[in-house]
Design goal:
mainly alpha; 247 residues; DNA-binding transcriptional regulator, MerR family; 3 domains; 3-stranded antiparallel beta sheet; Globin-like; 13 helices
Length: 247
């Protein structure tokens, strides 16, 4: 039975805007659009959406997911087995972390002794999901260059860069209700572009793509909106304007 976009939104716990975006980029195109313009999603659409959400949970970019699902050789059953194996491994690590927390509580109470190795069982931050997504979207060179620049900086310089980033976010948050096309906003968003190119190599196109990721990826949205509700969406729009004006 076909479902309307609002029904699919509630079913999958994702926003209507996200579903509209998936349609716009060709990631999830509803099998039917009524004469009144309503998107109607088929069972096949829902199966594809499930795969999209699985791959997204595992850190794949939307572009990478589309390439995977559009590949004629894609095997949905094989993909589900892969998802299961990865999630089982993730669950095992989470279970280990929970055990470590319980042991640490007992250790703090003086009821048991923990070795340094035991204190960090289950922790594994060897792969940064933001870095992985950036690599998939723009390739390794820009990310490697940015990482190298940061690593080459002394600790005080790295702290300075962090403070500078926070200052830019605060200034943008203060004017987030201003038109993104305004000279004031574009002046501030230019500072963000300059800042990013101090630690990396972002073309206007990549800058625009990064802004889109601020609203596509809930991790980015949550972090940025800590400075002010709606800031991620505002920056996405302002960065797109800046990129279009500086191509």
């Amino acid at each position: 039975m076909a479902m309307k976009v609002k029904e699919v939104s509630e079913l999958a716990s994702i926003s209507v805007r996200t579903l509209h975006h998936y349609d716009e980029i060709g990631l999830l195109v509803p099998d039917q659009v009524t004469d009144a313009g309503y998107r109607m999603y088929s069972d096949a659409n829902l199966e594809r959406l499930q795969q999209i959400l699985f791959f997204k949970e595992l850190g794949f970019s939307l572009k990478e997911i589309k390439n995977i699902l559009d590949d004629p050789a894609f095997d949905a059953e094989e993909a589900l087995h892969m998802h299961k194996l990865i999630l089982l491994e993730k669950r095992q690590r989470l279970d280990q972390m929970i055990t470590t927390i319980d042991k640490t509580v007992l250790h703090l109470r003086g009821e048991i002794e923990m070795t340094p190795k035991e204190q960090f069982q289950g922790f594994d931050f060897s792969q940064n999901p933001y870095e992985q997504e950036a690599r998939e979207r723009w390739g390794d060179n820009a990310v490697n260059e940015a990482n190298q620049k940061l690593n080459d900086q002394p600790a005080d310089k790295q702290k300075e860069l962090s403070n500078q980033m926070n200052d830019i976010f605060r200034r943008l948050a203060a004017i987030r209700h201003t038109a993104p096309e305004s000279a004031e906003v574009q002046g501030e968003i230019k500072q963000w572009y300059i800042y990013l190119n101090e630690i990396g190599n972002y073309s206007p196109e990549a800058f625009k793509g990064l802004g889109q990721m601020y609203v596509d990826d809930e991790r980015f949205t949550k972090n940025i909106d800590q400075f002010g509700e709606g800031l991620a969406q505002f920056m996405c729009h302002a960065m797109a304007v800046f990129a279009d004006q500086n191509q």
